[in-house]
Structures are given as C-alpha cells and as structure tokens.
Amino acid sequence: GAVVSQHPSWVICKSGTSVKIECRSLDFQATTMFWYRQFPKQSLMLMATSNEGSKATYEQGVEKDKFLINHASLTLSTLTVTSAHPEDSSFYICSARVTSGGENIQYFGAGTRLSVL
Amino acid sequence: DAKTTQPPSMDCAEGRAANLPCNHSTISGNEYVYWYRQIHSQGPQYIIHGLKNNETNEMASLIITEDRKSSTLILPHATLRDTAVYYCIVSQIYNFNKFYFGSGTKLNVKP
Question: How many CA atoms lie within 13 A of B24 on its CB side?
Fold first, then answer.
C-alpha cells in the first residue's frame, strides 16, 4: 500500500507554545488529506479535511484558529497546534487519500503523540 | 457520526479463522464499507473495502450481506500479530470519503 510519513512521532512542549506536525505522502500525490485526534482508550475523531490549494474544512466543534492546517503541495499537509495547553495533549494522526479506478482508500501515518506540560 | 455497530471485543484462537461482524443498517447506496485495524499506539492500517460484492485480498475476506446492512471481516488464519482494534467504517465516496470511526472491536488472538 501507499506510504504516509508523519513527523515528529513524539513531541513535548511547554504550555503556550505552538507545535507543527507534518504529514507527507511518500510515493503518491494526495489532493485530500485528513487529520484526526485520539485520546487514550478512545476511537479516532476526525478533526478536519485538508485539500491542496484551498482552505481546510473543519468538523463541528474543532477550532480552526487553534488547529491551523496548511496543504501547500500534493505531498505535504501540516497541522499547527497554536498556543498549546495540557488539554491538547493527544495522539494526532493524519491520512492521505488515494484515488484509483473511481475508488478511494485512506492511508494513515504512524501518528504524533503530543504532550503539553 | 459513526454509522456502524461492532461488538466491543472478541477472542480467537491462534490459527483459527476470526470472523468480525459489523452492523451498518442505515448504509446508503453510494457508501462503501471499509475495514481498518489499529495496533496499539500506531496509525490505522487498511485491510479491505467493498461496495456490495464479497472481496478478498492477501489479508482478509469481506462478506457483505445482500441487503448491505451488515458485513463480516474474515481473517482466515489468525496469528498473535493480528491482535488489534478492528474498525468497520461506511463512507460516502462523494463526500471526500470522510471517515467517522466507531468504537471498533478489540480482537484478542490467544495461543
């Protein structure tokens, strides 16, 4: 399957600072990428849909000014958690959509564990 | 919101077939059924997907009922490495294929 790389895999930051997470599709171009977050022992929650060259669309209840998404190229989407606070500590996962023969498959990165002190 | 219902956990003996059910009674005609699994602290891994026909690949088989209201993922010979949370997702192809994850099934493969 297609490979999605996510960086960093683990980050610790101080409260009030911003953190950027990168999501790259390594062997394919992705016009659409997705960002999820997952709290311990819970399922993945879709945060936003990232479309190359246009503004991201956010799910209800997700603050767009808090979670900045940039999809500047067909292989890179970034999520910036601005002014992070301890309640933002979570596992953030991205995915990239592959379209082939009219069917779509999402391939996921390995995730980024964010700890805000 | 997730449109699927799965049992929270299942056990399976190593070497035996694991049959994981999923109920998606409100599925619409343009929605596919996808199966992914997540091993602890990793990103989900794609397994298989289908629209209405049964599908098979090197990892698993997907059986979709004729009315499409439920499906079963079959791992033919489960190994200890198949221990994971398995998610069944229905997704509309025309809405960017957004995924809304449910709670999934924790499959415990035992020696």
Answer: 34
